[in-house]
Recover the amino acids of this structure.
């Protein structure tokens, strides 16, 4: 098959935005971003009255947005785990110029 149309035209114009000054996220960046959603995550306690640690595996794109978040371990398929993961998805990190990153963050739930 052949590709037709738009071959000689640029697909997108370059925008003159400043490149992010960071090349990766620091522990402080992660703590600050996740700290802002801890209240939402802790409110998930009310669903099943689970007290303890819920770990969330998350991925962050270079634009600073969370692209994926899922609860792991015992809470991988629980309502509480899904609630905490949804809270983590709302975290906003500073933009950076490096590759997307993934990590795990623990949220402590209690009454």
């Amino acid at each position: 098959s052949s590709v037709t149309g738009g071959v000689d035209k640029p697909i997108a114009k370059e925008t003159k935005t400043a490149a992010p000054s960071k090349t990766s996220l620091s522990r402080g960046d992660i703590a600050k971003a996740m700290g802002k959603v801890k209240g939402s995550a802790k409110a998930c306690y009310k669903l099943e009255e689970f007290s303890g640690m819920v770990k969330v595996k998350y991925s962050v794109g270079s634009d600073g947005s969370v692209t994926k978040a899922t609860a792991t371990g015992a809470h991988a398929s629980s309502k509480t785990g899904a609630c905490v993961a949804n809270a983590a998805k709302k975290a906003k990190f500073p933009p950076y110029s490096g590759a997307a990153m993934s990590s795990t963050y623990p949220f402590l739930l209690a009454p």
Notes: The CA atoms of residues 30 and 93 lie 7 Å apart.
